Amino acid sequence: MSLFLDDDRSNRLRPAILDDFVGSLLNDVERARHLGLPETTRIRERAKIISPEQLTIGEHCWIGENTLLDASGGLEIGEHTSIGLNCLVFTHSSWLANMMLENHSGSDLIERKPVRIGRGCFIGGNSVIMMGVTIGDHATVSPLSVVTKDVPAYSLVSGNPARVFQRYDQDHIRTEAERVRAANRARRERTQPAPPDSRTDRPDGQ
């Protein structure tokens, strides 16, 4: 007796199961190519996409380990956005199917609403984005947050449910970027080997 069922649902799910298996053998860039994502996408081990045909994702995005992207209701992720480890992004809910005792495959009580995550966003690890939410450009979601409503652009949200704790602008971002660049320059200079002493670099030591 075959272990594999030959019905419509099984045959529909099989390619995604094979993608998960093959993806476990690839690095993050190879995995992105295998899944048909932009060449600049880095998608880490055990990340999963539900309904990838409903996903629109920009260039230079990073998806962390064990993150689930449910695109069944439509999911858009802007360029240069990172979604951390163990995050859950939902675009559907089976709540009514459970309440009505109709939680069977193909139930018409599955509700779907699209999620949009803007460009230049940072979604911290272990966060949950609920269906129907729009996260504005350059927004930050702190780790361990549950986002249940729209997030304004240029804001930091945190908590369960997440709420706005800080607003910032491009000047603030540029100032912080220069601070970090300066710190990294100083660190590199400290760790670079000293140039050879010209007085001792000659064969005669003179």
UniProtKB/TrEMBL annotation:
The keyword Kinase does not apply. InterPro entries: Hexapep, Hexapeptide_acetyltransf, Trimer_LpxA-like_sf. Keywords: Transferase. GO terms for cellular component: cytosol. The keyword Transferase applies. Residues 180-206 are annotated as: Disordered. GO terms for molecular function: O-acyltransferase activity. It holds the Pfam family Hexapep_2. It comes from the Bacteria. Belongs to the transferase hexapeptide repeat family. This is Acetyltransferase. It comes from Micromonospora rosaria.
